Amino acid sequence: MIRRDFRCWLPLPQGFSLLSSLVVHVVCKCVADFTGMLHMRHPDFLGGAFWLYNMVYTQVSIFVILYVKSTLESSEEAALEAAI
C-alpha cells in the first residue's frame, strides 16, 4: 500500500475496486500458501521476498507443529497412565 500498488488493474469505481483488490490479494496469498506457485512471485501479487519468506515459513511451521503435537501427546499419555 505504501508503493500505491494495492489496487488491481481493473477500471472499477473506487469502493468496488478496493474490495475486489482485497479479494484478489487474499486469494493469491491462499494459493501461494497451499501450492507454492512460482507465478505468485510477481510484484503485483506477493513479490519475491515475501514469497520466499512464505515458503520458508511454511516449511518450518510443519516441523514446529509436529514437535508440539508429539509433546502434547506424550504429556496426555503420561496423565492417562497416572490416572489409571
How would you name the oligomeric state of the polypeptide chains in this document?
Answer: single chain
Structural class: mainly alpha
Figure out the total of helices: 2
Characterize the largest beta sheet: strand count, sense, and whether it forms a barrel.
none
Structure notes:
- With 84 residues, the protein is mostly helical.
- It has one domain.
- It is 69% helix and 0% strand.
- It contains 2 helices and no strands.
- The longest helix is centred in the C-terminal third of the chain and has 36 residues, at 48-83.
Main features:
mainly alpha; 2 helices; 84 residues
Compact overview of the structure:
With 84 residues, this protein is mainly α.
Chart the SSEs and their pairings.
Elements: H1 14-35, H2 48-83
